[in-house]
Amino acid sequence: xxxxxxxxxxxxxxxxxxxxxxxxxxxxxxxxxxxxxxxxxxxxxxxxxxxxxxxxxxxxxxxxxxxxxxxxxxxxxxxxxxxxxxxxxxxxxxxxxxxxxxxxxxxxxxxxxxxxxxxxxxxxxxxxxxxxxxxxxxxxxxxxxxxxxxxxxxxxxxxxxxxxxxxxxxxxxxxxxxxxxxxxxxxxxxxxxxxxxxxxxxxxxxxxxxxxxxxxxxxxxxxxxxxxxxxxxxxxxxxxxxxxxxxxxxxxxxxxxxxxxxxxxxx
Length: 267
Fold this sequence. Notes:
This protein has 13 helices and no strands. By secondary structure, it is mainly α. The chain has one domain (3-228).
């Protein structure tokens, strides 16, 4: 996979995960809307405030990606460890797809693990309400980014497969941008979109697509590794051919020199 493919995968994962965002973040997004003054809850003003909330949320995702990438960057130098990390990322995406479709709820357990930290942040969230100025909105959005979410955890697993912390941060940013349309619509009360995303057929289609992305993450890794190995083999064979050619050339030069010396010594 190329770097752009990884970013595209993260973006599409966030976009398809909108079926999950409705249930997980929809209530919080609506609560943040009602934390605004009455005059700010409509039209372009509401859109502006929602953008501030979500910019804080995306900032948290980006920083989480940067931190996780930095913590695990040393493992990327170990070939076997890098392969294991990517397989784990693919498995996370498969579990996420099954979770989105409602077929298997394993990621729900991970969300429960993160719940205590979320509860400890409640006093901070309360201090930011009601929201009166943009800095408060961004700060509230940053806290929103710590909401326990299987979708975010899966994106983190994908992010740490990158070779450098800045790339991990970009993957999380791309993921966050993918979630933006759904959460903006939720915050501005776009009821038709919410109903569409909550339909079983929509959720199952999104889940199946995410599963396919997970399979490609695993299978594409193996194909790329095989191709890389074949390329190394070809390069090694070419190097050997060049060495043989050089040896033949040297032997020819030695024979020519010996013939010349033999002719010079004849009376």
